[in-house]
Amino acid sequence: MSKVPGGLWKSLIAVQVYGANTGVGKTVASTLLAKHFLQRQAGWNVHYIKPVSTGPDDDADEKYLRRYGPRHASVLFQFKKPVSPHIAAREEQFIPSDQHVIQRLVAKLNADAHGAKNRASWAFTIVETAGGVLSPGPSGTPQADIFRPIRLPAVLVGDHRLGGIATTISAAESLTIRGYDIDAVICFDDGQGLGNAEYLKGYFNTQGISTFVLPWIPNLRGSSMEEEYQVMSDYYENRVRQDVMQSLAVQLKARHGQRCEEMDTMADRTSKAIWHPFTQHKSISSPDDILVFDSAYGDYFQVKHTPKSVATDKENTEASLLHPAFDGSASWWTQGLGHGNPKLSLAAAYSAGRYGHIMFAGATHAPALTLAERLLGGMNNLRLSKVFYTDNGSTATEVGVKMALRAACKRYDWDGSREDVDVIGLKGSYHGDTIGAMDASEPCVYNKKVDWYRGRGYWFDYPTVKMKDGMWVVRPPPGMEEEFGPTQKFGKLDDIFDTDSRGFSPRHEAYIRSVLDKLVVEQGRKFGALIMEPIILGAGGMIFVDPLFQRTLVEVVRTYPFFTTTPPSADPKPKSIDWTGVPVIFDEVFTGLYRLGRFSAASLLGVHPDISCHAKLLTGGLLPLSTTLASESIFDAFWGDEKADALLHGHSYTAHPIGCHVANTALQEMERLSTGSTWRTYQASWVTERSATSESTSFAIQPRPLDQTWSMWTRDTVLRLSHDHCVSGVIALGSVLAITLKDKSGTGGYTSNAAAGLRDALLNDEKGPGGSVHSRVLGNVIYLMASMSSKPQDLRSVEVRLMSKLKDISGARKKT
After folding, report:
1. What does the record list as GO biological process (predicted)?
2. How many whole angstroms separate alpha carbon 387 and alpha carbon 578?
């Protein structure tokens, strides 16, 4: 829906005229503005566009504009019946999609900009909407949402009638909450003494929005066509009104200039003032290396267009200064429901207005309580019964480690303040950037040069899963075939997750127990937790861990004797859901909340943790919020008479009601999507994988049971990627697609630059269908991530771009 460039051109000023209601004088305001630019702004080409219009052709607004103003006036979609567009379109059985409407509009605006370039002049285009700000378009979508992807500056025409103050302010707030800039408000004063114009001028002045007041439109009731033309011509030529329009024109030109200047200078100013995360600033050779974003909507960023050469610059002066870039990293894995989602924006505004900030210690509020109950219910895990709120994924895992270590120390009568108590984890895992979370990961590029890092743990190696040459391959680490067995190949991903059918793995268990025996029995080390990301290790390089190994690891640590004698504090009659061995922490910050097609990634393993950490998708990408879910037996470890026995961890914004309410809205929407037709379309692509190895020839599209795996990325594309000679493996599960590229130098991991060329090729190709693709790399791994609301046609477009650029790279490698 948002695969169009943002509305900002050097040679064209385009504004969108919205009305606070119908019948407020939008067309007259548009005519005044157009006529002023024609008569008093030398060298301007003036255009008028009505994207959607209803009513007889004779009454069409563009004909009115041509009569009094510019000759270049057009309607993109005209429906004969004078009713709301969604009804008029339905009666004519022609309902253009939102995408069709906005693509037609952008094409017309680009043509206006191109015409201005050819005439060595400026262009001014007025885009007038139908009805009010939230009046429905042909599809039924509110117009402010249809046109939001291009985010043209708005000129709002206020309502002069009784009650018009409220409707005008409400209209302005509707635009603001959707991320529009309101450049000006026009108020007609009908002389009835209602005071709307005076009040609104003062009100909007406090908002930093200029308001322009005009005398009311003459009453033309009973006038002939000739009389009407004469009266209105005089009205439009009136010097006072033209002076008001002059002030408005100056305002619009100044705002346009400020936007252009902002886009031109942001990179340079950023290089002087900003210290970027995860960035070696020495690698930024110039400010041009800094991406400049104007806005985002749906799955697309609006990125500053940066020509690669002077020739390209000359060729594209008529193009928008912005171009759409598919958000291929889901905005660092947070984006769940599309940028600028109006439901989430409204939820944030509501909760901000209702609550603001609430101190949460010893208190409660409905959004936090509702979210806690929703998370516990969605996990379908009887072990989990308590929810602790924090602000990001790193602190969620740090709290989880604190919980687990306290529980283990208390049960085994260890003194963690005086002796080392470590964690068990997986090689390549990473659990966050706070010091405690860092210590729960092995040394890596993220932490090994952090001066306080100590790396308090042992990290197991494991078999990994990738598709190569059309087969799903479970491969042991190099040189560890004896411990894990030989490489195995599967025709279906479901078979890899069917750990019951794969059978108990005595090799895995024997290996894990032998390692623990050396660590615990021979070396005397103490361990207080198992922490791991279920299924896929994110920051570690999008590593798909064999689910059979992870399940076996959980089962072993729950039965392994991490103590030499039973401590006196152990519960003699433990419940079946109490933790045993050591507490198990699942870091689902990346993999949880529908990322892999399930509410919880733990369900893919068939085992459940004692502590579960969540963030990222929790608020749909709008606000920072995280949770750590824990069992009753973990909670009991902090029960005591002294305050020091409590979990003394918290943040000023713990369980802030705005984030909690947005999270409730986001999870409710993701739950709806998970059972909808779009996800069934994705799932249908993977039905073939199941059928290809079965006797059934029926390919009927049916909703897939929850015990089946699937991806938003098509199986055909994943298969083709797996056969590419530059690709050593590919994984696809839920919204995640990760491609491991072969490195000619033989290096891998974060020291490799093998994926950087493909990333840059995807980003810099702006002319292909769907705009460029913004992606991230992890060494020789490039990954793409959909949001939960991504449309199949958008992802197919990204797949086409990906295969094309990979083909170019493969061809170049073959030549060398």
Report:
1. biotin biosynthetic process
2. 17
- Among 252-256, 560-564, 725-729, where is mean pLDDT lowest? 560-564
Query: By three-state DSSP, how is residue 110 classified?
Result: helix
Nearest-angstrom CA–CA distance, 570 and 173:
59
For residue 351, what is the enclosing H or E element? helix 342-354
Domain 12-262 has CATH 3.40.710.10: no
More confident: 664 or 540: 664
Q: How are strands ordered across the β-sheet holding 12-19?
A: 72-79, 44-54, 122-132, 12-19, 154-157, 182-189, 210-215
Q: In sequence order, what are the residues at sequence separation of 6 or more whose Cβ sits closer than 8 angstroms to the Cβ of residue 510? A: none
CA dihedral 95, 97, 98, 99 (to 10 degrees): -150
One-character DSSP codes across 740-782 = EEP-TTS--GGG--TTHHHHHHHHH--SSTT-EEE-EEETTEE
Q: What is the CA radius of gyration of the chain?
A: 31
Within 13 A of 556's CA, how many CA atoms are on the CB side?
A: 23
Tokens of 803: 């295969």
Q: What is the DSSP letter of 708?
A: S
> Are 12-262 and 678-815 the same fold in CATH?
no
Predicted structure pTM score:
0.92
E strand or H helix at 44: strand 44-54
Calculate the average pLDDT of the chain: 89
Tell whether the model's pLDDT for residue 111 goes beyond 80: yes
Q: Under CATH, which number does the domain 678-815 receive? A: 3.90.1150
What is 123-171 written as a DSSP string? EEEEEEEEEETT-B-TTS-BHHHHSTTT-PPEEEEPP-STTHHHHHHHH
Kindly state the tokens that stand for 124.
Answer: 């001014």
Alpha-carbon distances, residue 276 vs 290, 350, 434, 647 (angstroms): 10, 32, 17, 33
* Count helices and strands in the chain by DSSP H and E runs: 28, 27
Q: Span 428-442, mean pLDDT?
A: 91
523 within 8 A of 562, measured Cβ to Cβ: no
Residue partners of 305: CB distance under 8 A and separation at least 6? 5, 316, 319, 320, 321, 322, 323, 766
Q: Is 226 exposed, middle or buried (0-12, 13-18, 19+ CB in 10 A)?
A: exposed
**How does DSSP assign 253-315, residue by residue?**
HHHHHHHHHHHHHHHHHHHHH---TT--GGG--SGGGS--EEEEEBTEEEEE---SSHHHHHH
3-state helix, strand, coil in the chain (%, to 5): 40, 20, 40
Query: Position of tokens 């206006």?
Result: 112
How far apart are alpha carbons 485 and 466 in whole angstroms? 17
The partner residues of 323 in beta bridges, in order of sequence, read 303
Provide, rounded to the nearest whole percent, the portion of the chain with pLDDT above 90. Answer: 70
Q: Identify the DSSP state of 518.
A: I
Cβ–Cβ under 8 Å, residues 649 and 399: yes
> What is the residue extent of each domain of the chain?
12-262, 678-815
Find all residues with CB under 8 Å of 3, minimum gap 6, and list them: 99, 149, 300, 324, 770, 771, 794, 797
